[in-house]
User: What shape does this take?
Amino acid sequence: MNITRRRGAIAFFITLGVLLVGLAIALNIGWIILNDRAVAFAVLGVILFSLLIAGVVLNTVFLVREIRRNERQDSFLNAVSHELKTPIASIRLYLETLQRRPVEEEQRQQFYKIMLSDSDRLLATVEQILKAGQLGQRHRQQNRTVIDIESLLAECIHVTLQRHHLAADNIVLLPVPGAVRLQVIGIPEDLRTAIINVLDNAVKYSPEGVRVRCSLAITRYTWVTLRIADTGMGLPSNEYKRIFKRFYRVPGRSMVKIKGTGLGLFLVRNIVRQHGGDVTASSAGAGLGTTITFTLPLAAPEGKPDKS
Assistant: This one.
């Protein structure tokens, strides 16, 4: 089912639902007018027609949601197929070239570098899909440790700079106000995944040049706030919550030029919530960048047990 047919199906079910509700209301009102003396039957009729209307509305909402969910899943499958096939085809091409003819050492090293990059991309896609499955099935019950969030963020920035071959000033970690040490309780691997996903998005959706600023601060005395702000494509206000849904990608953004599976921010939200926090998105508008804000509970100071 292509996008045009899906939109037609959504419009059909919404129109059908509205017509059925309108017909039910008209019949109900007409029946009451014709039987104005039979109060008991009128009340019974109102109740039955109310149930009928509720059923029609729920059925319409369910059908529309299923159509949209199927659309997101199809987009996800298409994106994953592309994300898996492209690096595999690239690696295969370079291997065949190395096998068929002699290659100068400099060019050989360049081939190795490209193949390593493609294999990293392939591995990242597979890991993202596997982690989405883990988070979707059950709550992670691993041993949690005290994490220095500033050190973890600095490590994630370093990984992102290397992965996208960026200069150090493309992604900057601003000094923490008061030079305090910020610690949280959690699973380092999961929080690292969440932060890197946001940093990757900041880079991907900044086609005119990457300028990302990361900051940490204490809010309300017991929370740490992590902000990752870019100057890229920005978001309309009605997309702030939708971008955290499974398989969702913002309409209008090029699916070919900007690659993705629609799982990155879904993982971010689930990871942060499993650590007792929350994540939000904001933007000044199209072309004015996006800010993703994490809030996580601070770890209790050493020597003081966490009362929660």
Summary: The chain has a mean pLDDT of 79. Residues 69 and 236 are 21 Å apart (CA to CA).
